[in-house]
Design brief:
single chain, 405 residues, mainly beta, twelve-stranded mixed sheet, six-stranded antiparallel sheet, 6 helices, 34 strands, 7% helix
């Protein structure tokens, strides 16, 4: 499993037309609500494109334009392309090629937007479908959040959105946000043995499944704590992101305090060096946000937080050392893409490209990727029995999960 899963931050230089860049309801409707699915803390919603769909999109405060990561939609939906651009993103690697389109209309629930600014990747370099375990076609961000008062009820997996003037009391504690380059930022307090109590400015990014990523402090790489482990932190538009994972003593958002929080420390050149906003210290992700019911009110520069049912769940990382990817099919197949050096899985002899057939005597094909992710971070000392297929031979590998940080 990816230790911090997916970091979906991009910096795109695009020139957009300025007409009607808002979602809207037809008729007298001024609000709507839909259910969403959630995998690895990511919110997945159904989106219709040019009257076709639905297509699974990740709802992501960390992106500006609509991002289509599945290039086959260009041909299947006969999307009109304006021109090609280069996208620079976080992670190792060079700029990637994408198309720009201003001729795409979308619908989510009963909300519509015409001519939504869109970037279409020429190659699906993120591989979201493989690592989320369900087909993902792209990311929906700023234009949705800027059009409505948006409420994410993580506890019940419901998305509520209404026009700012539609009325209704907002529940929760108000947290001021600042919208910079179409993305929301807040200041949070963190405490650690190395730094004591300090305030950091973070992007609010519900499209990143980690808790918090700390990138820069005083124009230098954020110091990695002595007690930490090396890790693959995910994938950005620029490729894989490497770094370390440690823990904070506490993290404070408004009047809420979370204890023993996992923190990622990405390699400086992979992330901080590519972030244009120099006063940004890091990225607050969905492993924090999903513990609340969250309301975003971009018009009022506000975010509201109310404790959810998962507020007190412990912060845990993968304890197996295994990263999986899903090969779609009926049935689906799970393969190992990476083994963490020195991890329980490596010591047990599990190898890259092994196919997992059974986990604790249950067919892997009957499990969702989210189920396996949660199992591999469930409890220190838990015994895992894998039946794996390697070179046309069935093998049994046994190991105990180990909390390494």
């Amino acid at each position: 499993m990816r230790t911090c899963q997916l970091i979906l931050l991009i910096h795109i230089c695009m020139v957009y037309s300025v007409h009607a860049q808002q979602f809207y309801f037809k008729g007298n409707r001024d609000k709507d609500a839909i259910s969403f699915s959630m995998v690895k803390n990511l919110v997945i919603v159904p989106l219709y494109i040019n009257n076709s769909g639905p297509f699974n999109f990740i709802l992501d405060t960390g992106v500006g334009p609509l991002i289509i990561t599945e290039p086959q939609l260009v041909d299947s939906l006969q999307l009109k392309i304006a021109r090609s651009i280069k996208i620079s993103g976080l992670g190792k690697g060079d700029e990637i090629d994408a198309f720009v389109s201003n001729d795409i209309s979308v619908k989510i629930g009963h909300a519509y937007m015409d001519n939504i600014p869109t970037a279409i990747l020429k190659k699906d370099i993120l591989g979201l479908s493989n690592y989320v375990g369900t087909k993902i076609y792209g990311l929906l961000g700023y234009y949705f959040f800027n059009s409505f008062l948006v409420e994410l009820k993580y506890s019940s997996k419901r998305l509520l959105f209404r026009e700012p003037g539609a009325g209704g009391k907002i529940k929760g504690e108000r947290i001021p946000i600042e919208i910079i380059n179409s993305k929301p930022y807040i200041t949070v307090g963190i405490e650690s043995p190395e730094h004591g109590e300090i305030d950091v400015k973070t992007l609010v990014d519900n499209g990143a499944s980690h808790a918090i990523s700390l990138e820069r402090l005083n124009e230098r790489p954020f110091p990695v704590p002595k007690t930490s482990i090396p890790a693959n932190l995910g994938v950005g538009m620029g490729g894989l992101i490497y770094g370390s994972i440690g823990r904070l003593t506490s993290l404070k958002i408004g009047g809420f305090t979370l204890k023993n929080v996992l923190a990622s420390y990405p390699t400086y050149d992979d992330v901080a060096a590519k972030v244009l906003l120099k006063e940004r210290n890091g990225n607050l992700g969905a492993d924090i946000l999903s513990r609340f019911n969250v309301v975003f009110d971009y018009e009022d520069n506000s975010m509201y937080l109310k404790k959810g049912s998962q507020f007190n769940r412990p912060f845990e990382h993968d304890m197996s050392g295994i990263e999986l990817y899903l090969q779609e099919g009926k049935p689906p197949h799970y393969f190992i893409s990476r083994i963490e050096p020195g991890s329980p899985a490596e010591k047990a002899g599990v190898m890259v490209d092994d196919e997992i057939v059974f986990i604790n005597f249950q067919a892997a094909s009957s499990l969702k990727l989210n189920d396996i992710t949660n199992l591999f971070k469930s409890a220190d000392g838990k015994i895992i029995i894998l039946s794996i297929y390697r070179n046309k031979e069935l093998m049994i590998k046994t190991f105990k999960l180990k909390q390494r940080i």
